[in-house]
Amino acid sequence: MATTQQQTDVDPFTAVEALRTALDSNGLVLPSLAVDPASPGLTLVDLGRVRADVALRLAAALQRRAVA
Known about the structure:
The protein has 68 residues and is mostly helical. The chain has a two-stranded antiparallel sheet with strand order 1-2. The longest helix is centred in the C-terminal third of the chain and has 16 residues. The chain is globular, with a radius of gyration of 13 Å.
């Protein structure tokens, strides 16, 4: 996705599935990951709650990606 893409051009359901797939490939699960139904015009994705150990693993995966 281009960094200049407008937020309204992104389907939130597609974004949720893409994020879920990427997280899964890193052995991570965000149980509450979903499209935010309260703000359909804003195309918000609700990341929900996550255990502290999963948050640390997510941070580590992102850091590995930033270094690579």
